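Mods, move this if it's the wrong board.
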Amino acid sequence: MLNQHKILRVLKLISYLEQSPSKTIGHLAKILESTDRTVYRYFDLIRECGFELQRDEHNRFYIIDERSNGVRFSEEEAKFISDLILTYGKQNKLKDSILTKIYLGSEIPMVASHLVYAKNNKVIERLALAMANKEQVILRKYQSINTGTICDRLVEPFDFTDNYTSVMAFEISSKKNKTFHIDRIAFVDFSGKPFLNTAKFEKQILDIFGFSFSGKTYPIHLELDLKQILLLKEQYPLTAPFIQFNYHTNMYDFKVHINNMMPITRFIKGIKP
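Not the wrong board. Structure tokens:
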């Protein structure tokens, strides 16, 4: 997570770039009381957040202010819509896309956390375009929990999971269908290469923790108290249908089959006194 000082600098930079005329690197560095190198790093972050950074023929930079077109909301209207989305769409990855558009089309300032997570919107947008064009993409700096590595993955994406939390894709190197979490993808690059493995695409059946089937399932039966159940449902909302109150023990039974033990093992370790 970005610290507050850095967030304010990035927001300030976006505001300057949306104002005419275009700005040179040196001018931006002077305004931000920073270095040219730091400005370029901020540019990378701005692009990851989904802003289209432009450069003119004089090597000056600018961002097209999207707020000049389309529907605009008052501060009260934008806040009301944002609250509704955050209340009823917390688990939907599309909320970041919608919230970003609301902030851009309103008088309220962009919330820092949505600036950071707005990159999910760009990732989803590029993956959807690749699916439509049947084009292979590179998932840049993908963070894998299973292997504990951060590396690029060349894949053929073919579907999203519920709420756009993950993308289903055929990985070229392993020749396997896999599920990749949107949050763990730094950026998506188009490869320019067409799909070659369409006949091998198989949709993944995810468990309540978001893990796909890999040949084996694990039966889970836990007895939890009210506090533990509330924590479980807060961290993993999809567990709710598999929880029942046991009147004999005055505890809650959590019964389900899962595809990977890692999330529940981590949860149990977290609730141990």
